[in-house]
Amino acid sequence: MRRLEIIGLEGLGGVRQGDSIGRLIYQACSRHRITLVDGDILVVAHKIVSKAEGRIIRLDTIQPSSRALELSHELGKDPCLLEIILRETRRIIRVGGGTIIVETHHGFICANAGVDLSNVGLGQVALLPLDPDRSAREIREEVRQLSGVMPGVIISDSFGRPWRLGTVDVAVGVSGLKPLKDDRGKNDRYGYELKASVAAVADELAAAAELVMGKRGEIPVVIIRGYSVEGEDGSAKELLRPEAEDLFRKF
Amino acid sequence: MRRLEIIGLEGLGGVRQGDSIGRLIYQACSRHRITLVDGDILVVAHKIVSKAEGRIIRLDTIQPSSRALELSHELGKDPCLLEIILRETRRIIRVGGGTIIVETHHGFICANAGVDLSNVGLGQVALLPLDPDRSAREIREEVRQLSGVMPGVIISDSFGRPWRLGTVDVAVGVSGLKPLKDDRGKNDRYGYELKASVAAVADELAAAAELVMGKRGEIPVVIIRGYSVEGEDGSAKELLRPEAEDLFRKF
Q1: Cβ contacts of B179 on chain A, cutoff 8 Å
Q2: What ipTM was assigned to the predicted interfaces of this complex?
Q3: Which of B 122-151 lie inside 8 A of A, CB atoms?
């Protein structure tokens, strides 16, 4: 039987700037007597990566621009928070209903440019890592140095979606696996050639991990065991739909 | 440690109209010596449900309307396929780049109204079940009658997304669990009250199952074990964002 295990790694709570996430993961595995094996995938909540990389900002250090003040009136949100969101933004996609959807400098389209108030401490916000693929590569390399094993690594965040309620976790950084699984050109059992079968497996792995992580920060790292990784390496940027092929970006 | 298992159930290939999916699942579990337990969640690819419910159509029985012929020219797709898509459609959301995004009569917004050519036999297409929540309830009840256990049941399909490439599986039918996990009002460890933390767990469970299912139809049913289901029952309709709150429906 094809079988996956999704294992929550507890005890990684108090991450501080400068910490090595790879080392913390290795140490937590040791404490819990978990031996990482080849093919394991580590899904890491971006929040602890942002903390380790110093991507945390105190709201009271921010001077809001006039644009942030305008948006603050329109959205009923803190102008300092909006100023931080604007600094993380390449362009605004939609504003309405108390929500701001933007394209970040990385190219992700999401609410609030991924700027988040939860699980960081009162009066502070977490930004997405500057280069989440690089963060994933570094974690992978740290784990390799300590354990000799090269896991796949996914940095995850919770994104909302058009049309459907609730967030699902997606991959914002990837190392050691291809984020898309392309079955186009293969035949089904009836001889039909699959034409649209590209699965965003890195996003599905992130979503699967969220079921164990939860939203309160107790389990920021999840090990997925038994998934047969295809491809040696990849980038979360492969998940971004090019603007020219996107029906929901320009209006 | 919090831990989930995701177990693919093989040997459910040749589903025919009139088959009881619940009975086929029960029999496949018996053959593979898997005993279902309370709390298990069955994720069932909609394709086998559509087959059992007779929601399969031969393309050569269809007379395309003038609207289907027009769209056929615009999109470069088979006019008979487009006629079937239009019959499943409440309204068209976007047409472009060879793609048609519609709102189905159920309220799902997806490509091709969920009409699918793969894993059904050449010259045929599968429609989504008429009432996927009802399909999920029936499977749940059939399994209960045979095993005494009441699993959660999710009917899944692969949907594309704006902005991101690749499909992820989502829940189109639900029985025996709440599809949304609402943590709003709870506090994180810093005392911050969570304000936006609603996870679409039924979609995340469907996404997790796809990692084991794959796209070629060999594993149409997956058992997810170890997830603590909240709520006695729910509907996939709870996942549909109301139009008035949706920033990407009307233009």
Answers
A1: 166
A2: 0.97
A3: 122
Task: Tell me what pLDDT residue B191 has.
Answer: 86
A183 in contact with B, Cβ within 8 Å: yes
Query: B58: distance to nearest CA of chain A, Å?
Result: 14
| A–B CB contacts, 8 A cutoff, strictly below | 255
Burial class (CB in 10 A: 0-12, 13-18, 19+), B38: exposed
Query: By the 8 A CB rule, do A15 and A52 touch?
Result: yes
Q: Please name the residue of chain B whose CA is at the shortest distance from the CA of residue A197.
A: B215
Beta carbons of A121 and B192 less than 8 Å apart = yes
The three-class DSSP label of residue A176 is coil
Map residue B172 onto helix, strand or coil.
Answer: strand
Q: What pLDDT is attached to residue A231?
A: 66
Q: Which residues 27-86 on chain B approach chain A with CB closer than 8 angstroms?
A: 32, 34
Confidence of residue A92 (pLDDT cuts 50, 70, 90): very high
Tell me the average pLDDT across B154-176: 97
Average pLDDT over residues B19-40: 96
Parallel, antiparallel or unpaired: strands B152-159 and B124-126? unpaired
Q: Does B121 touch chain A (CB under 8 A)?
A: yes
CB-nearest to A210 from B10, B199, B216 is B199
Residue A121, min C-alpha distance to chain B (Å): 5
Structure tokens at B186: 């709870």
Domains of chain A: 5-55+128-238 (3.30.1330.100), 57-124 (3.90.1660.10)
Q: Under an 8 A CB cutoff, do A247 and B94 touch?
A: yes
Structure tokens at A76: 């009923």
Cβ-count burial B77-114 (b if 16+ within 10 Å, e if not):
bbbbbbbbbbebbeeebbeeeeebbbbbebebbbbbbb
Phi-psi region of A67 (alpha: psi -120 to 50; beta: other; left: phi over 0): alpha
Number of Cβ atoms within 10 Å of the Cβ of B238: 16
Q: In chain A, pLDDT over 90 holds for what percent of residues?
A: 80
Of chain A, the percentage scoring pLDDT greater than 70 comes to 98
Position B215 scores a pLDDT of 77
SS3 label, residue B190 = coil
What pLDDT, in 10s, does the model give residues A117-176? Answer: 988 889 999 999 999 999 999 999 999 999 999 999 999 999 999 999 999 999 999 999
Q: How far apart are CA A15 and CA B125, in angstroms?
A: 51
* pTM of the predicted structure, to 2 decimals: 0.97
In this predicted model, what pLDDT tens digit does every residue of B70-100 receive, in sequence order? 999 999 999 999 999 999 999 999 998 889 9
Smallest Cα distance from B197 to chain A, Å: 7
